[in-house]
Amino acid sequence: MGNVLVIDGHPDPASLTAHLATSYAAGAAASATSLVLRDLDFDLTLRTGYRTPQVLEPDLARAQALLEWADHVAVFTPLWWGSVPALLKGFFDRTLERGWAFRYKDNGMPEGLLAGRTGRLAVTSDSPRWYLPLVGDSTVKQVRGRTMEFCGIKPTRLTRYADVRGRTEEQLATWIRDAADLGAADAARPGRPDRPGHPDVVRPEPAAA
């Protein structure tokens, strides 16, 4: 079984995105840890880019430890203005630090430092599925291609929940139930043998000889 980190990037706990993330994590069961960004305490703004260091708040330090622990990273986000909520974008900006999540090699090419992990991007949208590729599918390109896979989390599979406005309550409930099956399937994939332990688990000190 692989360790699954579920990142809920929606500011509203009553949103469809939040319900999908919760159900997915429940399906992954004991293999999963949820990182609910609206519950974290951190500055969304990367104040000077990478020109000067910006100390990570404790919640972001734990987030990095969870990313190191994870075999599979699932990001749940709505599509807002062709992008993602400021909450999720700020989390990426602050947490995925240069030299930790990625680096540039001597030839100038980027290298993802979170390699060895798979991913899933789940996107909710009011826009219908057929419309999004016509306008560039910018949220998927940004999060899957230029963020997750850029940092080495690949392959990152895509799950769409489109035309949300046009769905009945029964259809939405089916999506939420099905998300649990998706979480169970992702958790069933094997994990890395050398992964670090969960940051919240305190291990006893070894006994003296």
UniProtKB/TrEMBL annotation:
Keywords of the record: Oxidoreductase
Keyword Mitochondrion appears in the UniProt entry: no
Residue numbers spanned by region Disordered: 184-209
The Flavodoxin-like fold domain, residue ranges: 3-174
Recorded superkingdom: Bacteria
Keyword flag Glycoprotein: no
Family: Belongs to the NAD(P)H dehydrogenase (quinone) family.
The protein's name: NAD(P)H-dependent oxidoreductase
